[in-house]
Amino acid sequence: MRAILTYHSIDASGSPISVAPDAFARHVAWLGGGHVSVESLAAITQGGDCAADGRDRVALTFDDAFENFGTVAWPQLRAAGLPATVFVVSGHVGGTNRWGGAAVPGIPELPLLTWDALGACAAAGAEIGAHSRTHPHLSRTAAAARHEELAGCRDTIAARLGVVPQSFAYPYGDCDAAVVRDTAGVFARACTTEYRQVAVSDSVHQLPRLDMFYFQAAAALADWGRPAFLRRIAMRRAARAVRQWWTAPKSSSSTRAESL
Ligand SMILES: [Zn+2]
Fold first, then answer.
1. pTM of structure
2. In angstroms, what is the C-alpha Rg of the chain?
3. Low-confidence ranges of the chain (pLDDT < 70)
4. What is the pLDDT of residue 5?
5. Ligand 1: distance of its center to the CA of 60 in Å?
6. Of the candidates 67, 75, 169, 201, which lies 20 to 30 Å from 126 by C-alpha distance?
């Protein structure tokens, strides 16, 4: 099994974008315990479902580049020797996650990493990925503006940090054929919010992920890869699909998906 894990904020608010600090610490302990092969996002898009030693393969991603990535998540990951990618919204660096200026019910407004803090993470080995300039729905963004959201974000990060980002995460997971095509012209790989493990047939510009919001219970990772674990993923995926279908007349996806 091969999977890319998604985190947003590590905080105790219990919000849909939050994983609690104690749950995250358990995840780091498990991920660092040798049960799976934790690899960079670039590495995991190559090869098959198992590492050379037969272990499942996992990559770690953090959307939005919250301040607590630098203060809580990355120090623990670094101490455990675990690679990670943090996806940066270049127009909001040093600001907050109030995309578009409006509050979203149930979603806390939280500080984002500054350029200096991002530079420190990069210098310590974190991969800096791109997450657009302003966190729009890219499928609803006109072509010229969309190019600026993609290439403009890449260029700003490159200018500020001295590293050209190769990985992208679609804001809200929102991508259609035109968005994927444009993204493929700018980045080597891109992550969606489609909820499942990676399949050999997946495009590197439409990589599915598992949102760790759903894995906060004490032993949530203990049966990793076993039939019961895979059934839970399939059931969660089906429930999300039904909810997104049900809410489709009012919006393109669920309230939770809208908040990410
Ligand atoms: Zn986001």
1. 0.94
2. 17
3. 246-260
4. 98
5. 15
6. 201
Q: Which residues fall within 8 angstroms of residue 104, CB to CB, at 6 or more apart?
A: 258, 259
- Any alpha helices (H) in the chain, and if so which ranges? 21-31, 41-44, 67-68, 74-80, 115-123, 143-147, 153-161, 177-184, 227-246, 255-259
| Other Cβ atoms within 10 Å of 136 Cβ, number | 17
- The two structure tokens encoding residue 118: 């991002």
Give residue-wise pLDDT tens across range 98-150.
Answer: 998 888 889 999 999 999 999 999 999 999 999 999 999 999 999 999 999 99
Residue 258 C-alpha to ligand 1 middle, in angstroms?
10
Q: What letter would DSSP give residue 171?
A: G
100 three-class SS = helix
Whole-number Å distance, alpha carbon 227 to ligand 1 midpoint, is 31
CA–CA separation, 5 and 138 (whole Å): 22
Looking at residue 259, its pLDDT comes to 54
- DSSP 3-state of 71: helix
132 alpha carbon – ligand 1 mean position (Å): 9
2-259 folds as TIM Barrel (3.20.20)
How many Å lie between the centroid of ligand 1 and the Cα of residue 103?
A: 14
